[in-house]
Amino acid sequence: MGLRSVFIFLCFIQGCDSLIEGLYCGKQNCYDVLNISRDATKGEISKSYRRLARVYHPDKYKGKDGEKKFISISNAYEILKEEDSRQDYDYMLDNPDELYRNYYRYYRRKVVPKVDPKIVVTVTITVVSLIQYYVWWARYNEAISQIMMVPKYRLKAMEMASSQGLLSKQKKKDKRTKEEIKEEENEILRKIVEENADIRGVYCKPSVVDVLWVQLFIFPYYIYQYIVWYIRWIWRFNIKKEEYGDEEKKYLIRRHLKVSQGQFDAIPDEQKEVYFEREAWILDNFKVKLCTPF
Fold first, then answer.
1. Does residue 138 contact residue 132 with C-beta atoms inside 8 Å?
2. pLDDT digit string (tens) for 179-205?
3. Per-residue pLDDT tens digits for 7-33
4. Best exposed site among 92, 132, 186, 249 by fewest CB in 10 Å?
5. Dihedrals φ, ψ of 76, to 5°?
6. 256: nearest Cα among 272, 236, 232, 233
């Protein structure tokens, strides 16, 4: 005999009360407290509550149990005015033998805070967007730092800075410390590297347009652009049989490679030239000719 069967048996012998002390309205029936039936509408519940609250308000009702009655009325109204809590209460009335489940359903609403799903979604998207932007900037700064550590790139940046007159030529007469002079020099070189370095792929300079919030906002525009582009592609190359231009060839090669635009941009120009020489935008050429080493 299971636990449920034992509980039902005990209820049958001793009598099983659907009203549990400490849950909802305790030993009182919330519907009886508000003088309404179980099929009362929200409007009827609110109307009955306002009527009883006026009668038993502590400022008006001078009886000894006035405050207690007013608290009971307010508690019953809080339980029955919300559809979810009312369903839980009705479930307890209809299933008094499911003691543990009734306790769980009651305290689930007491413990778990009521948070608007819109707020949760908004906060989540905002946090993800901030993390995205921070991680992208960290990658970009790491890439710039790595470039500045390469001697040939650093020397090239120093030559450009000197030709533009950005570096101090009279360091002996400079009253600043060596650390301050070196720090300024690194900032100048870093700026030159940022302006001239061709960084692509995941290490490229981040843009606010790429974060999740902005992407969601402009997503309908992207859909519109894609539909227009697709219709134009069908018209030009499937119906009119026009020759592919360089951009269209790049797109087809990228699609054959199954890489994103950022990954394709990161491919060295020499490698892209090989793809063009072998006419890799044609699928048969891509499958056959690219199987041989470059």
1. no
2. 877 888 888 888 888 888 777 777 788
3. 344 343 333 556 677 788 888 999 999
4. 186
5. -60, -40
6. 272
